[in-house]
Amino acid sequence: METTSSSKSNSNNSSSAVLAPISDSGQSGATYWIRGIVFTALFAALFIAFGYISIPLGFTTVPITLQTFAIMLAGGLLGARFGFWSIAIVVILTAFGLPLLHGNGGLGVIFGATGGYIWMFPLSALFIGLASDRIFARTNKLNRSQYVMLFLSLVLFSVILAYVGGVPWLAYKANYSFAKAMVNGCYPFLFGDMVKAIAATFLIATLRPLLPKLR
Ligand SMILES: O=C(O)CCCC[C@@H]1SC[C@@H]2NC(=O)N[C@@H]21
Fold this sequence. Notes:
Elements: H1 15-19, H2 29-52, E1 54-55, E2 64-65, H3 67-78, H4 80-95, H5 107-110, H6 115-138, H7 144-174, H8 178-185, H9 187-207
Antiparallel strand pairs: 1-2
Helix pairs in contact: 2-3, 2-4, 3-4, 3-6, 3-7, 3-9, 4-6, 6-7, 7-8, 7-9
The structure holds biotin.
Biotin (BTN) binds at residues 51, 62-65, 68, 101-102, 114, 117-118, 162, 189, 192-193.
Family: Belongs to the BioY family.
Keywords: Cell membrane, Membrane, Transmembrane, Transmembrane helix, Transport
Subcellular location: Cell membrane
């Protein structure tokens, strides 16, 4: 993805520039990393903030939450590398005890009833990032089929992947049958998750071309 400055013309062929790779988008290696780290921190903060926007349903320990929306935006806007780390860093720090997931932290959260969803969150951001990197590698303005591809990747890698981890773990922790775990950990959330995926598709398609390239 990155070429050294020796492959670029004019001012980039000084010895100091050789130490600072130039990305495809023309930014120096230092600029790329500083931007990447700043955006990673911003989306980590967004993920933490959206964890507080949660609606308990009463009949289940799994809340409606905007965490998945933040994950879609992190992967879709930052791409695979920084999208993954923006979510992974929060999960890792939570595991070490920082109260970053709706004010709670520690292994009790990571291995609690909703732990299966939480483990999937960084992977969701990673796979969404890989998909959106591919889609936006070809164009900045999505056509209809690229919109559909982006939406489907959000559904597959955020919504479905969350349930692949979350539902069996919920069944194990709460001693539910798989069918009961689906009732408590999947069906009530599907409509809201689809709405988040639709909103995220349009936000990503609109905002990603305005952001500096982070790949
Ligand atoms: O305890 C946590 O921090 C994780 C909560 C997980 C909530 C899941 S994610 C998929 C589904 N969609 C929602 O809005 N809530 C559940």
